[in-house]
Design brief:
The chain has 143 residues and is mainly alpha-helical. It has 5 helices and 2 strands. The chain folds into 2 domains: 1-31, no CATH class; 34-132, Orthogonal Bundle (NinB fold). It has helices at 10-22, 38-53, 65-79, 106-122, 128-132, and strands at residues 85-88, 94-97.
Length: 143
């Protein structure tokens, strides 16, 4: 049996405490920050798509959304002093071992989005699809 409680008020906290107190020996309890939201995921992917369609090249060539995602997550990890490493792969290639955006909490995902928006701004990337999807205010709109 699995129970999950989103701690939104004292009543839910009480329910969680009662569940813990009545749990059999050997059960486990974990608390975690909420995972990134679907909106955060969609916004990040919209921005990455705009970046892939832009004039910006990396290491001398245009990059796919998947490549930009890997570059941005790696850069964000370094910029925020998070862990990660580059190691030799199974066939002698180099592999970046980095955090997964799917496992990011809400705050970490928000930080990644801010980092990505700053990168796009600094590199003159127009976020047309991101704007069309309603994830950022239209250019020229009052903040």
């Amino acid at each position: 049996m699995t129970q999950r409680f989103v701690l939104i008020n004292d009543r839910v906290r009480g329910n969680a405490l009662r569940a813990i107190q009545s749990a059999p020996a050997g059960f486990t309890v974990s608390l975690s920050e909420p995972k990134r939201t679907n909106d955060q995921n969609a916004k990040f992917h919209a921005i990455v798509g705009d970046l892939a369609r832009s004039h910006v090249k990396w290491a001398g060539k245009s990059r796919t959304p998947e490549e930009w995602k890997a570059l941005l997550i790696s850069g964000h990890a370094v910029a925020t002093k998070s862990s990660g490493e580059v190691i030799p792969g199974l066939e002698g290639e180099f592999v970046a071992i980095r955090e997964s955006s799917a496992n990011m909490g809400v705050r970490r995902a928000a930080s990644l989005i801010e980092y990505t928006l700053a990168f796009c701004h600094d590199n003159g990337v127009e976020l047309l699809q991101t704007e069309r999807q309603g994830f950022i205010a239209p250019r020229g709109a009052a903040a």
